[in-house]
């Protein structure tokens, strides 16, 4: 159930009640701290949301879900009450009438601690002159005193957490329920505004509102780590007209229902109020409509600003705690894509941008996981458009032996004094045709050199203490995507290293979860005395013979292979070292090459899957799926050779990981373009290329400055880009590959900028008009 914007599972509620029962002396404050830690319920600045948690726990208590310990009134609260009652008002209540200029200089004093003199002054002013008094204020809050150098205190203001639901406001913003839950912290409410009744100065109220709104965003960001973009307030119709808010450029968007924050019984006793809003950011509505986590990963699952280019699409929804970091991420991604093989200074093209990139990589708010999260969301949206998606896992290493002073790296070789660097285990989504849809999960770590030589101990360790857990973590990422894309069948795939019994168990736990397809490495013992896996499947009748294309790898040329196909269902016993595990039942497909050429290693695949295999066509389907696993190896080559990630000299593994997050998406983009140019060759090139890019390419390749009236196809422009990278397009050359593409992209940006300069200054007729020239336009 969701309480105070936080999800409380049944397991969490049981855990809370058990803790209360085991520790009778536990206070509510101590309990709230623990619950916040368990749920990782914290602000952007990492501070635990204890107040929100205590409210949530109290609601669960009143609903009968838990039984809280008795509340204890703290001594400091009693002292504060007594002290507040004993203190007299400090302001001088003399009548003042005059012009605003006579009160200058006017300043805003930010109220800090609840026990400070400023806080007591604020409480006294509100309790004596505001019809709502000094409190309570809900949630996060910011208070100010208004002070005149020539008069004294003029009034006070307070801002607090925004209302959870408000029809007039929500209709004006246009956000979904999911977007509201995620982005409500970016709204604040002007919950108190007081100008002392004995001070009369035209335009004073609107002047004070303008002053506070100019600093509110920064003050709120510094205190809570949230960047507010919209402010709301409520003006009671029977008391005020809201003139000062209109004068300060607030807009009236409707009225409340008269319920108030605490009207759970719908008595509507609070009185109808006008709703006013003020945007602290010109794009407030678009920012609030963005969804960080989409419950159903479809393109229209939440309304958000239309992305302007691929970098906005993949990184535009990043939540790094500071909008400047979000914008910098998008800029760096664009720069990295335009010069994929270059070093960082060359990518950034200026000293200032280079320095900003280095600062970005070492910023504490830019870990790899946060940087990749918006790309994961875009990947899930693309997954939701497919019927079947192959979630391919693989491991690669990044070699930084040439940079031994880099902090946080470890051994990546089988020799103790061998190469050093980082290990990367990533998961990429592919269509069944082999088009990469994007990354689903990335894990990066350095091995501990102190554990070198202890490989023989691996069988005595639980899976959680071994590197093999990487396969289970990536499967869980696929399971999360499956939950968000229920109309798509996701198949998690791995090579022989993924032949892990715990992975089989995990895949069979949830029938609604993703399927599993891995290549077997071990000749496992079967249950019911049926012998071992390999001999059992080899005895099955021949289902048919299938021809497949084996791609070129290193020095081995591409070739056609003929495979004998057999299949069957097998019950697998757990490993001898893990007798506590239960037997599992899997489907098996065996593909063995016949008539193998001399000097060539025969193809022999034993595939284990949780997908049902009942006939030859279903067996061929699983073989066809497994052939797509090679795509991730092509992707790794693109990452290393095309983006030169192993050449990064950043001094620490943390900075390398931040840089790697961007390079991995850039490498996917290049790989995606290469595959898309083959899969959908006839779509217009404007799907992926800007107008200036394809026109510049046309002028360069064809030596004709006049572009065609209609944009060429994507395949044509892809070949033009590859031409810049050395692609000759001869009869036997085949389609352009990722290598010629990343080389060509290196030069594309220079061509584009030169073409734009020449066209703007010497041939403006080559540029598209800003509006349509059709005869019927207008």
What's a concise summary of this model?
With 778 residues, this protein is of the alpha+beta class. The protein has four domains: 2-62, no CATH class; 89-288, Aminopeptidase; 368-647, Transposase Inhibitor Protein From Tn5, Chain A, domain 1, CATH 3.90.350; 680-778, Transferase Inhibitor Protein From Tn5, Chain A, domain2 (Orthogonal Bundle), CATH 1.10.740.
Report on the structure:
It is a single chain. It contains 24 helices and 21 strands. Strand 13 (410-411) and strand 14 form a beta hairpin. The chain folds into 4 domains: 2-62, no CATH class; 89-288, Aminopeptidase (3-Layer(aba) Sandwich); 368-647, Transposase Inhibitor Protein From Tn5, Chain A, domain 1 (Alpha-Beta Complex); 680-778, Transferase Inhibitor Protein From Tn5, Chain A, domain2. The strands form 4 sheets. Strands 12, 13, 14, 15, 16, 17, 18, 19, 20 and 21 form a 10-stranded mixed beta sheet that branches. Strands 4-5-6-7-9-11-10 form a 7-stranded mixed beta sheet, sandwiched between helices. A two-stranded antiparallel sheet has the order 1-2. 38% of the residues lie in helices and 19% in strands. With 778 residues, it is of the alpha+beta class. The protein is globular.
Features:
778 residues, alpha+beta, Aminopeptidase, Transposase Inhibitor Protein From Tn5, Chain A, domain 1, 4 domains, seven-stranded mixed β-sheet, 21 strands, 19% strand, globular, disordered C terminus
Write the layout of secondary structure elements.
Layout: E1 2-3, E2 6-7, H1 10-22, H2 28-39, H3 50-62, H4 75-86, E3 96-97, E4 106-111, H5 117-129, E5 141-148, E6 152-161, H6 167-173, H7 177-183, E7 187-195, E8 199-200, H8 204-224, E9 230-236, H9 243-247, E10 251-255, E11 273-279, H10 284-288, H11 310-315, H12 323-338, H13 344-348, H14 351-362, H15 368-383, E12 388-399, E13 410-411, E14 420-431, E15 436-445, H16 469-484, E16 489-494, H17 501-509, E17 515-519, H18 533-538, E18 544-550, E19 559-572, E20 584-594, E21 604-609, H19 616-627, H20 630-642, H21 653-679, H22 691-702, H23 714-724, H24 738-762
Parallel strand pairs: 3-8, 7-9, 12-16, 16-17
Antiparallel strand pairs: 1-2, 4-5, 5-6, 6-7, 9-11, 10-11, 12-14, 13-14, 14-15, 17-21, 18-19, 19-20, 20-21
Helix pairs in contact: 2-3, 12-21, 14-21, 15-21, 20-21, 20-24, 21-23, 22-23, 22-24, 23-24
């Amino acid at each position: 159930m969701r309480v105070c914007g936080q999800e409380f599972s049944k397991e969490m509620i049981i855990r809370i009640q058990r803790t209360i029962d085991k520790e009778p002396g536990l206070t509510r404050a101590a309990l709230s701290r623990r619950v916040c830690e368990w749920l990782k319920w914290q602000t952007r600045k990492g501070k635990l949301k204890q107040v929100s948690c205590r409210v949530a726990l109290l609601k669960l208590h009143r609903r009968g879900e838990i039984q809280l310990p008795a509340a204890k009134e703290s001594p400091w609260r009693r002292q504060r009450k007594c002290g507040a009652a004993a203190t007299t008002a400090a302001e001088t209540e003399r009548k003042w009438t005059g012009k605003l200029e006579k009160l200058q200089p006017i300043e805003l004093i930010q109220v800090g601690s609840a026990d400070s003199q400023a806080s007591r002054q604020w409480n006294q002013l509100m309790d004596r002159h505001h019809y709502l008094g000094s409190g309570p204020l809900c949630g996060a809050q910011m208070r100010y005193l208004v002070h005149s150098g020539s008069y004294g205190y003029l009034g006070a203001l307070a801002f607090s957490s925004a209302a959870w639901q408000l029809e007039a406001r929500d209709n004006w913003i246009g956000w979904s329920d999911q977007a509201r839950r995620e982005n409500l912290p970016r709204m604040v409410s002007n919950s108190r505004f007081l100008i002392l009744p004995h001070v009369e100065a035209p335009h004073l109220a609107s002047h004070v509102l303008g002053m506070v709104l100019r600093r509110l965003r920064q003050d709120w960001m510094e205190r809570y780590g949230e960047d507010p973009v919209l402010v709301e307030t409520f003006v009671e119709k029977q008391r005020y007209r809201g003139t000062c808010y209109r004068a300060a450029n607030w807009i009236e968007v409707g009225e409340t229902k008269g319920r108030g924050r605490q009207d759970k019984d719908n008595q509507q006793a609070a009185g109808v109020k006008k709703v006013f809003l003020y945007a602290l950011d010109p794009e407030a509505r678009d920012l609030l409509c963005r969804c960080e986590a989409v419950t159903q990963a479809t393109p229209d699952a939440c309304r958000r600003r239309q992305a302007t280019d691929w970098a906005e699409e993949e990184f535009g929804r990043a939540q790094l705690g500071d909008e400047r970091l979000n914008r910098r991420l998008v800029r760096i991604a664009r720069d990295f894509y335009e010069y994929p093989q270059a070093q960082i200074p060359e990518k950034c093209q200026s000293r200032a941008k280079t320095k900003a990139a280095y600062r970005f990589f070492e910023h504490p708010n830019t870990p790899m996981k946060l940087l990749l999260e918006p790309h994961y969301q875009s990947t899930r949206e693309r997954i939701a458009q497919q019927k079947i998606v192959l979630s391919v896992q693989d491991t690669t290493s990044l070699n930084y032996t040439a940079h031994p002073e880099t902090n946080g790296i470890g051994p990546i070789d089988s020799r103790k004094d061998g190469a050093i660097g980082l290990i990367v285990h990533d998961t990429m989504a592919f269509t069944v045709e082999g088009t990469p849809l994007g990354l689903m999960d990335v894990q990066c770590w350095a091995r501990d050199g102190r554990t070198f030589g202890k490989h023989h101990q691996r069988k005595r360790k639980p899976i959680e203490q071994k590197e093999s857990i990487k396969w289970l973590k990536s499967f869980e990422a696929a399971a999360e995507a499956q939950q968000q894309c229920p109309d798509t069948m996701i198949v998690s795939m791995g090579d022989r290293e993924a032949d892990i019994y715990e992975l089989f168990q995990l895949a069979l736990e949830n029938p609604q979860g993703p399927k599993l397809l891995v290549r077997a490495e071990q000749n496992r013992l079967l249950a019911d005395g049926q012998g071992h896996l390999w001999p059992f499947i080899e005895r099955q009748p021949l289902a048919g013979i299938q021809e497949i294309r084996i791609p070129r790898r290193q020095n081995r040329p591409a070739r056609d292979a003929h495979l004998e196909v057999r299949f069957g269902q097998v019950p697998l016993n757990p490993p001898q070292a893990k007798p506590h595990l239960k037997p599992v039942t899997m489907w098996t497909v065996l593909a063995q090459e016949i008539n193998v050429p001399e000097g060539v290693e025969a193809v022999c695949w034993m595939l284990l899957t949780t997908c049902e295999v009942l006939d030859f066509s279903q067996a061929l389907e699983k073989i066809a799926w497994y052939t797509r696993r090679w795509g991730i190896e092509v992707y790794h080559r693109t990452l290393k050779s095309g983006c030169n990630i192993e050449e990064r000299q950043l001094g620490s593994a943390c900075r390398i990981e931040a840089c790697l997050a961007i390079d991995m998406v850039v490498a996917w983009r290049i790989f995606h373009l290469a595959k898309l140019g083959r899969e959908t060759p006839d779509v217009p090139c404007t799907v992926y290329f800007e107008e200036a890019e394809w026109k510049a390419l046309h002028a360069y390749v064809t030596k004709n400055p006049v572009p065609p009236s209609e944009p060429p196809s994507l395949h044509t422009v892809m070949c033009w880009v590859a031409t810049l990278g050395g692609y000759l397009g001869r009869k036997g050359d085949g389609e352009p590959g990722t290598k010629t593409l990343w080389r060509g992209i290196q030069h594309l940006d220079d061509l584009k900028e030169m073409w734009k300069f020449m066209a703007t200054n010497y041939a403006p007729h080559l540029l598209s008009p800003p509006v349509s020239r059709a005869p019927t336009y207008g």
